[in-house]
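pipeline stage [seq->struct] | target=Coenzyme A biosynthesis bifunctional protein CoaBC | organism=Salinicoccus siamensis | residues=220
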Amino acid sequence: ERGDRMTGKKVLITAGPTQEPLDPVRYITNHSSGRMGYALAEAAADRGAKVVLVSGPVNLDAPRGVEVVDVVTADQMWRAADSHMDADLGLFTAAVSDFAPVSMQDQKMKKEQGTEQMTIEMKKTPDILKHAGFHAKDMYVAGFAAETENVEAYALDKLKRKNADCIIMNDVSNPDIGMNSPDNEVVMLFRDGEPVPFEKMDKQSLASAIMDTLQDRWLD
Ligand code: C5P
């Protein structure tokens, strides 16, 4: 529908939350709906790209023409994404859990009488965006920065630390935008070039606008 400027290009997108199991019935997760990543996948497919969408557990339908790889944990998301590091464009929208329980209990954890506090040992999960930034030679790498304070400073830091070409930042301290909201308001920051701000809009329209801007930077 949007022309075929991305025909022959492969796009890798991560989306949604991850779930890190504690025991057979409990897990650690976050409020990500996956909407931004799914909207970007649809926008890329509309432009003719071959799209692989590595998705955590969400309540969304697979966009038309998109290959969805369903995963649950950060570790699974990492492994699925790692097998597509040959993509031309990578959009890392997933809200990956930063830490996961060191071990999963085989049986449901019981509350013992008299225990008022407990400690769960957690380990860091692999950083998929950072891995792509440093190791995917031919990929244009774009990440997301959702912060509640010092938004721009943290986003610029992320651009450098993860060796990304672009960071799309939003201020999630405002409940009207960002995580689990239908709307979003972002600023795109680039390794080379001036920041590009967007007005608040629904995630479908924003995905189109982001994709147009990325195409200009990366394809031309
Ligand atoms: O470091 P932080 O989690 O704030 O960075 C957010 C960006 O990094 C997002 O693009 C997110 O998808 C990506 N990320 C990742 N793997 C992780 C943690 C974050 O790809 N383990």
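stage status: PASS
auto-comment: The first strand starts at residue 10 and ends at 15. The longest helix spans residues 203-218.
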